[in-house]
From TrEMBL:
<keyword id="KW-0812">Transmembrane</keyword>
<dbReference type="Pfam" id="PF00335">
    <property type="entry name" value="Tetraspanin"/>
</dbReference>
<keyword id="KW-0325">Glycoprotein</keyword>
<protein>
    <recommendedName>
        <fullName>Tetraspanin-6</fullName>
    </recommendedName>
</protein>
<comment type="similarity">
    <text>Belongs to the tetraspanin (TM4SF) family.</text>
</comment>
<dbReference type="InterPro" id="IPR008952">
    <property type="entry name" value="Tetraspanin_EC2_sf"/>
</dbReference>
<keyword id="KW-1133">Transmembrane helix</keyword>
<dbReference type="InterPro" id="IPR018499">
    <property type="entry name" value="Tetraspanin/Peripherin"/>
</dbReference>
<feature type="transmembrane region" description="Helical">
    <location>
        <begin position="6"/>
        <end position="26"/>
    </location>
</feature>
<keyword id="KW-0472">Membrane</keyword>
<dbReference type="GO" id="GO:0005886">
    <property type="term" value="C:plasma membrane"/>
</dbReference>
Length: 129
């Protein structure tokens, strides 16, 4: 019985290891896939509450960001031309953003710059001085 338990644990470990390796190898494809799907969700965004729009709202309110790279991504959407920015782009809870860019979250730029800095440090860490 103990050998069976150890075998299952080993199998689970190997599956997790393979998943981690596959995720690392295909990280760029996964990133591009997420970006393309998120851009599609922004283009098809509406306030009726379908699952894509709800996911966009949840992502923007949780991560305190607006759009894929910044708030200007919304200017190409039908929703923006009709109603402006969605409420999930608000910096404060009591705002009603229409087309005022100063009321929306744009911290994603800082997150992106932090990512670029950490990547540059990691890439330069192994160079011979």
């Amino acid at each position: 019985m103990l050998k069976l338990y150890a075998m299952f644990l080993t199998l689970i470990f190997l599956v997790e290891l393979v998943a981690a390796i596959v995720g690392f190898v295909f990280r760029h494809e996964i990133k591009n896939s997420f970006k393309n799907n998120y851009e599609k969700a922004l283009k098809q965004y509406n306030s009726t509450g379908d699952y894509r729009s709800h996911a966009v709202d949840k992502i923007q309110s949780t991560l305190h960001c607006c759009g894929v790279t910044d708030y200007r991504d919304w200017t190409d959407t039908n929703y923006y031309s009709e109603k402006g920015f969605p409420k999930s782009c608000c910096k404060r809870e009591d705002c009603t953003p229409l087309r005022d860019a100063d009321k929306v979250n744009n911290e994603l730029i800082g997150i992106f710059l932090a990512y670029c800095l950490s990547r540059a440090i990691t890439n330069n860490q192994y160079e011979i001085v």
